[in-house]
Design a protein that fits this description.
By secondary structure, the chain is of the alpha/beta class. It is built from 14 helices and 5 strands. The radius of gyration is 26 Å and the shape is elongated.
Amino acid sequence: MNQLLGFVKKEFTHIFRDSRTMIILFGIPIIQLMLFGYVITTEIKDARIAILDHSNDNVTRELTNKILSSGYFRLEDNLQNEHQIDPIFKKGDVKQVIVYEKDFAQKLEREGKANIQVIADASDPNTAQMLYNYTNGIVQDYTKKKYAGFAIPVQIKSEVRMLYNENMVGAFMYVPGTMALILMLISAMMTSITIAREKEMGTMEILLVSPLKASHIILGKVAPYLLLSIIDAVVVVLLGNMVFGVPIRGSIVVLAFLVVLYITMALSLGILISTVANSQQVALFISGFALMLPTMLLSGFIFPIENMPVPLQILSNLMPPRWFIDALKQVMLKGNGLEYIWPNILILCTMTVFFLALSIKKFRFRLE
């Protein structure tokens, strides 16, 4: 028994001395719990909206104040006419526009009813439906309390109009996110594992002492996965369009450029991971934990970024899939061109150049 206890004690000592094992045992569960605890929420707060008030009377102002004071909404802009609605949605500045009809207060007094139109960006159908439910609930609560003692029943009817996804199809949200996840895993993970395998087999040393330059080695490793990833992207877009009805309202050329840029970025990230991973297992672990979870949780793929705490919103800016998914939705669902998505493209280009430069630098260091 003493021998067994001594052996168990020795194993505990080895575990506690290995910092990597301690990170896996305690660090990862804590990080995952914090991420899921803060990210996964059904509440929406401070959603940006715009108001188009054709009446501008005491009732509409009072109702607007009640909507904004609920904590669910934040006023982004007061619109002057209907022509400003489409541009503000295409810019991605707002999630919802509330339109009051003319003579709102007078119609309530004379006829006992008035109309509000709620226009929502349904490229994320779940968020759009929840925001409409919040708005409608606030309007009905306001009507019930303010006109409770009236002789005639008073009704404020809210009509909803869903832009870019009239039928509220969930695939319109999940297809772009799924494409980002698939391309990231295939491009980055497979590239990092392939190069790590070269290290394990010893063939990487042969490449390092060969006349090939570091850039040539990287390009040679990247080229096959670049072509295969492009084929995967085409398959996803075609299946999304033909099977799920996801439209492609924007330019095919812009869409193709965006996809190739994202794949190149993911491949360069995979190369970078391979330079710090000495085995396939390490490369697989880094790729899976550092790429898959952030892509699903912090990119806006499933959970709206606006719902997250400010530190996680800041962290999400460092996630390449966030910018790709946003640009992909703009091109496919809203029909936007380069004039709207150029910030996303600039950020992805910067990330690509950074990852490639750092990867080449590390390869050159090994050559020296």
